[in-house]
Amino acid sequence: xxYHHILAAYDGSKAAKKALEHAVAIASIGPNxxxxxxxxxxxxxxxxxxxxxxxxxxYMKQVEQFETSIMEHAREIIAPIxxxxxxxxxxxxxxxxxxxxKDNHCDLIVMGSRGLGxxxxxxxxxxxxxxxxxxxxxxxxxx
Length: 143
Prior knowledge:
This protein is an alpha/beta fold. It has a single domain (5-142), classed as HUPs (Rossmann fold, 3-Layer(aba) Sandwich). The mean pLDDT is 87. The chain is globular and about 45 Å long. It has helices spanning 14-27, 57-78, 93-103, 118-124, 127-134, and strands at 5-9, 34-41, 46-48, 51-53, 84-90, 108-112, 139-142.
């Protein structure tokens, strides 16, 4: 089966890399298949009573450097696909991925089974699990 537009969620983890490689393989089957790699910036602010806590400026610089490096790595992986691009989304990963897929008529979502956010997964549940449960299109979860 060929797809028109594949969305691959990518956070730089080993599982996300394997998922992106699968997405490239699937996209290469169809001559005009689009592949979009989505990285979601999620910067939670913790609210404790009337006190809100964000991340330090130094930490945010390190995060930005890390995100730049994983996007460069993703660019290398998708280079063989002529209709490919990278987008950076913001907010909670689950609705960000689902909204992008719906708004851009993606007909397949590909993602890794485990990402980099162990604390977030413990608190909120697996992103891949929630995407599978709520997606309107097929979702390929790669281990």
